[in-house]
Design goal:
By secondary structure, the chain is α/β, with parallel strands linked by helices. The protein contains 13 helices and eleven strands. It is elongated.
Length: about 280
């Protein structure tokens, strides 16, 4: 087993051991760098040693025409729903490039909804007033929770290229007139850190965290699925929710931790609870 000092990782100032349930645990986060900070901070505060191995990256659409067409007629929409920070970031970036003011609720009462507090904060930073944040923290729950308020409204749904049509269908079933448009693409990162890959393959990490099926599939491009499946018998694979967990299980990988709360704090708490529950058995052994 490699020494834990092989390379530098983040740690916060020491806290009481009772407040550090992940003390001595090495956790790999596969989220994109711009999305990993909140989870990294939460896990580090619990004592974990964090290794960042981005397994996803983001890029603009290959063709702007569909998005540009909708942005040029923003005043025809009664509501806009943001499912991710990336949707906010890329939509506003494109508006600035086109010289279009994305005012929405700020001036004309357009309803703004988001999935997750991080997405809400991203929208607020762009000057929006957010009317609603999904309690269930998923796109499907957002649609169910807003069924009564979006009927008859024109809804703009900027999303990633790998998003499915379940939300659009749910909104249509609720009586909304929905326009979904790709605002960004999810792509594989150009490279993976070879030192971290070596640690994973040797089983010298305690947990690998996946926040999307894309992250898992991209990682399986450099570590074959059958090898990941074998690793999952001794490394604790963590998934942010049922969709990601299903993608891992359908590939033959064991999922030890499945967070029902898809926020970063919820995922960190699920990881901590999992390892805390194993400590009495480890002491008996």
């Amino acid at each position: 087993m490699l020494a834990r000092t092989e390379f530098c990782a983040w740690r916060d100032a020491p806290l009481d051991k009772a407040d550090r349930p992940l003390e001595g645990k090495r956790v790999v986060i596969t989220r994109a760098p711009e999305q990993s900070n909140e989870l990294r901070v939460a896990l580090t505060a619990m004592g974990a040693e964090i290794l960042l191995l981005p397994a996803v990256a983001f890029a603009p659409p290959e063709d702007w025409r569909l998005l540009d067409g909708q942005l040029r007629q923003l005043d025809t929409f009664d509501a806009i729903l943001f499912l991710s920070q990336n949707a906010v970031r890329y939509l506003f970036q494109r508006c600035r490039e086109l010289g279009i003011k994305c005012e929405f609720s700020a001036t004309r009462g357009c309803f703004v909804g988001t999935v997750g507090e991080a997405t809400k904060e991203a929208a607020i930073r762009e000057g929006l007033h957010v009317d609603y944040v999904a309690k269930g923290q998923t796109a499907e729950s957002l649609a169910q929770e807003l069924r009564g308020s979006l009927a008859g409204r024109n809804v703009l749904l900027p999303r990633g290229d790998r998003g499915d049509d379940r939300l659009s269908k749910a909104l249509l079933d609720a009586g909304a007139r929905t326009t979904g448009v790709v605002a960004y693409r999810t792509v594989a990162p150009p490279t993976f850190d070879p030192a971290i890959l070596r640690l994973i393959r040797r089983g010298d990490v305690d947990s690998i965290v996946f926040a999307s099926p894309s992250a898992f599939h991209n990682l399986s491009g450099v570590i074959p699925v059958d090898e990941l499946a074998r690793l999952s018998s001794r490394v604790h694979f963590a998934a942010i929710g049922p969709t990601t967990a299903s993608a891992l299980r359908n590939s033959g990988v064991s999922v030890a931790i499945e967070a029902t709360d898809s926020s970063s704090s919820g995922l960190a708490a699920a990881i901590a609870k999992h390892f805390e529950s194993r400590q009495p058995a480890a002491r008996r052994a």
